Amino acid sequence: MLKRKRWIFAILALLPTLAIFAYVRMYPIIDILRLSLHRWNILSKNKPFIGLENFRELMSDNLFLTSLMNTTIIAFGVLAITIPLGMVIAALIFHRTRTRMSGFYETSIFIPHIVSLVPAAMAWKWIFDARLGPLNALLSAFGIEPQAWLFDPVLSVVCVIVLCSWQALGYAVLIYLVGFKNLPVSLYEAAKLDGASGPKSFWYLSIPMLKPITLYVSVVTLVSGFNVYAQPFVLASDSQGAPGRQVRVLVLDMLENSFRNYRVGYAASEAVVLLVIVLVLTLIQFTMLREKGKA
């Protein structure tokens, strides 16, 4: 009886929070699903139900396909850089700088993650500038021809990956540091007695034991990568502030369809595609981790 009363009390106590969560999080998702099945134009009173017509149109829309390809390349590019580099830097900070300076290193590498996106993107835009940027000046010192970083379709995507990786790295390092600090020291001591120290202990002990941390960081990084918007928007904008078209990403395409072309239903179908992609990738990562854990 007492246990039942505790369950009732817990449910009643959580109801306000659950109601707010449902309204703020779940209701918009359900409404987006509804909008994606309609030809929903802001300027038109008639908003007919068209079923999956918006999704069929997406498959033949070159702008959408380009946006999806660029977004996917950016998300996985940032993931490929952030995970291994974040783990290695965290290992170096944890194992080799257990001094008063370790806090300085942790703070320094975490600062890019909390810097406002627009000022950071403006600074990197200057670095990548074809005429006045220090990056081309550095390349010229080594005899390499200057590159039009922000005007080439391929190089501009690389620039966005570099900027996003620079911002995401600090968070990955911080989370991996938490993981390193919770690993059992006895295992490393035993491995050192067996001759497995340094890179060997990192490869055979640290990486396997940090799989849950890696899963979390990879999910957060991929979700953030597929929602990228401010970085390419600022990097590819012209001198008057108008958004450029070299780095077309999915969120930018959604916003333009919604507020410039007034095709809210079509933009909602893009949002549904983005939601499905993120859910599928997250499920795949959890499945892989579970299978490795059983093995």
TrEMBL record:
The cellular component terms of Gene Ontology attached to this UniProt record, alphabetical and capped at eight, are: plasma membrane
Entry keywords, A to Z = Cell membrane, Membrane, Plasmid, Transmembrane, Transmembrane helix, Transport
CDD domains noted in UniProt: TM_PBP2
Q: Name one Pfam family in it.
A: BPD_transp_1
For the keyword Transport, the answer is yes
According to its UniProt entry, the protein's GO biological process terms are: transmembrane transport
How is the protein disposed in the membrane? Multi-pass membrane protein
Q: Which PROSITE patterns match?
A: ABC_TM1
Gene3D superfamilies found in the cross-reference section:
MetI-like
| Domain ABC transmembrane type-1 stretches | 68-285
Q: Where does the protein principally reside?
A: membrane
Positions of transmembrane segments = 73-95, 107-128, 148-178, 264-284
The entry sums up its family as follows: Belongs to the binding-protein-dependent transport system permease family.
Its protein name is Lactose transport system permease protein LacF
Q: Which species does the entry assign this protein to?
A: Martelella mediterranea DSM 17316
